[in-house]
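Q: I'm writing a short explainer about (+)-abscisic acid 8'-hydroxylase for a general audience and would like to include a description of its predicted shape. Could you first generate the structure from this sequence?
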Amino acid sequence: MAFFLSAAFVYVVSLVLLLLLGATRRRRRARAAAKTTRAAGQAQGRLTLPPGSLGLPFLGETLQLYSQNPKIFFASRLKRYGAVFKTHVLGCPCVVVASPEAARTVLVSRAHLFRPTYPPSKERMIGPQALFFHQGDYHLRVRRAVQGWLGPDALRALVPDVEAAVASTLRWWEGRRDGEASTFHTMKRLTFEVGVATIFGRGMPEHVKEELRRNYYIVERGYNCFPVPVVPWTRYSQAIKARKWLGAILSDIMSERRAGGDGDLGGDDDLLGTLMRCRDDGGAALSDDQVADNALGVLFAAQDTTASVLTWVLKFLHDYPKLLEAVKAEQMAVYEENDGGRLPLTWAQTRTMMPMTNLVILESLRMASIIAFTFREAVEDVEYEGFLIPKGWKVMPLFRYMHHSPEYFEDPHKFDPSRFMVAPKAGTFLPFGSGVHACPGNDLAKLEILVLVHRLVTNYRWEVIEPSDDVTYSPFPVPKHGLQARLLRATTTAGGAEEEDGRRAPAAAA
Ligand code: HEM
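A: Of course. Here's the predicted structure. Afterward I'll give you a sentence or two in plain language.
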């Protein structure tokens, strides 16, 4: 019996080895073939498409992408074909790029050859004049206005608004039954408040804010639905209707500001005013639709992104108690400097007194990589390293792949904020994108996280209910159920057993 078992074992092991060897050989052959075809193409003065498969007619590889974890879809192809390969998904031929050099080419050095591209239903929902969808002079003009408004001077002045929004959000959370709420939904309340303060200033009446919030959430619910515009009760149709309302609300606000006389467009202290004052070289102002699409576009870009990252930061701090202690010590020093929280936080304190919290934010951005990739479209035939990227093809830089590659980040699946004490290799860490469309709101997002963490660890403690490492997509990745958690005043400290890597053992989470 033992003989048969060991013979069977040897047989199975040999079979597995043969299969692995076969797979490795096939991979090598595929790469070598791609190299040879490329070299032959170059020698004859013509370019070849990158290696990869376009899959079935019409369907391409869409079924393969959606029938498995997308990580596996990309990882298996990257292994087989290298860091640049072709595929065909969601009706579009596509070149996937996963090296910092290729991402830089697409997003920075030859960005003029790759225009941003989104499905028309999404463009319609956000507003077709929003800067994300444009290239060239119009994009630059609006971007300058938005970036100027999200620069250090504006953010310095915004710290009290962020602090007030954080304090009221945490009071709301604390006031839930047993202090229980989804962290993600709570963080969305915060990012909406901060978004509104940034875009519309301090003086927005409560009823207008409520109307804005109600319609905004209807739009958001329809944003990721299949677009069926002719049927009035679908989420998509309701979202389109709510989007029209949002446009009307903004139009009223703009009219009121203009009627304020004296060219009063909301003073210097909000983004709406900045957009209303924005002029091109010939002195022409933006149209009301252009202002509205951009103001709402920024609100959209700022909300779920920041709320997802905030949720991850809270999860990681909860999961690593030693780290939480270190962050708390750093934040207590600020709290004491501010006379036990009686004085307001300052911009300078967020910049200089919170290095550990900053490292935690960077590592959370890397681990969660909430924007896993982006899309561009080649505006003409483009040559890249001997390959042809044909005009009209989509190009997809894979940020998450680079963030999780052992080539650029040692032991990439380990949560280790200290790795950011040394700057990562250029172009390997792009949570906010890169180039002309890189995120102009990154410093505001970081400010919100720093202020939230400060208030949270100096005044409260929180307990995750049923801790888990599962992830849900909303569409950004967030911990399961949005990280259901209980918020309590910090009279006692949460304890709990730890595992070897300093991580809290799941059973002892609270
Ligand atoms: C942690 C939170 C955030 C993350 C991870 C994030 C990430 C990104 C990324 C990766 C891009 C580039 C997309 C591309 O190249 O296709 C982007 C663009 C953008 N983000 Fe953010 N973002 C965040 C928060 C914010 C905030 C708070 C704001 C505004 C207040 C904002 C406004 C924008 C805008 C307007 C763009 C488009 C820029 C352009 O096309 O020129 N984002 N963001």
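A: For your explainer, you could say: The two ends are 51 Å apart (CA to CA).
Q: Perfect, that's easy to follow.
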